[in-house]
Amino acid sequence: MFRRLLAVMLAVIAATATTPAHASAGFPPTGGNWGAPGPWATAVEIGPVNTLYYPRDIAGSTLRHPVIVWGNGTGAVPYVYRDLLLHWAGHGFIVSAANTPMSNPGISMRAGIDALAARDADPRSVFHGRVDLGRIGAAGHSQGGAAAIVAGADPRVDTIVPIQPGPLADIDAVHGPAFLMAGQRDSIVWPALVKAFYDDAGHIPAVYGEVRGAGHLTVVGSPGPFAAPTTAWFRLHLMDDPEARAVFYGPACGICTDRGTWSDVRRNSLVPAQ
Predict the structure, then answer these.
(1) CB of 72 within 8 A of CB of 80?
(2) Where does the UniProt annotation place the signal sequence (predicted)?
(3) How many angstroms separate the CA atoms of 159 and 163, rounded?
(4) 218 is a domain residue
């Protein structure tokens, strides 16, 4: 009896020592500097369907890393958004960017989740046991922003960040919190179009943020004012980062009072007031 109990205890200890921690623990704090580079060196892997941006030493990580699936704007490829996607990877996320210039259906984004699930299960893969398939966000720009909304209907996707999203999506099917971003000077996807998505999102916690002075292509190349708030949002919802909560939630709401960055911020009644 004693030997059997000892064997069980040793098995539990071994499992605890070798199983990567969940995303809610172990990720280093940023000190609130969401726009600064993260602590991880990064790597890029270009595949037939998706391009992966991820922490370079992920095979030796003790953590399970959350996932962000990305959709490109019309005619664009992941390389156009390379700086933003690498910024997220540097903060510990695995980013799966669809290799398609027509991302609206969200098919390649969902396929990216399937591909990462297979890599996580493959003992030969650097991603083996390192992908947190329980923490997945969807983001994208323009047509890809609409694709992020489409992907948000997938039960595996926990939260969405549509950046200047095109109109071909139905946010009624989204089940997780949404951070809808517009550009004050966007003449392609007018802020009013993004506000329409926000107004229709009364069934989920939704935040609308309009970046002061931003045009439709501000996020292309250097992500500028889009890097910090998107990183904070994903660290809050996919890493349970307590520092990020006050950026969007509660009575303080950092973006609500930051008039240097934002020309308009709105939060619906489902956003936590505390």
Answers:
(1) yes
(2) 1-23
(3) 13
(4) yes
Q: What are phi and psi of 240, to 5 degrees?
A: 55, 40
- The list of the chain residues with pLDDT below 50 reads 1-24
What number of other Cβ atoms are within 10 A of residue 179's Cβ? 26
Whole-model pTM?
Answer: 0.91
Dist CA 238 CA 27 (whole Å) = 11
Q: Is the CB of residue 264 less than 8 Å from the CB of residue 191?
A: yes
CATH of the domain at 97: 3.40.50.1820
Share the mean pLDDT of the chain. 91
In this structure, is residue 150 part of a structural domain? yes
pLDDT score recorded for residue 191? 98
The answer to whether residue 273 is domain-embedded is no
**Cα dihedral: 152, 123, 17, 88 (round 10):** -40
| Dist CA 223 CA 64 (whole Å) | 26
Distance from the Cα of residue 257 to its chain's centroid? 23
Q: Which residues form the domain of 117?
A: 41-267
Within-domain flag for 192: yes
Angle, CA 76 vertex, CA 200 and CA 112 arms, to 5°: 70
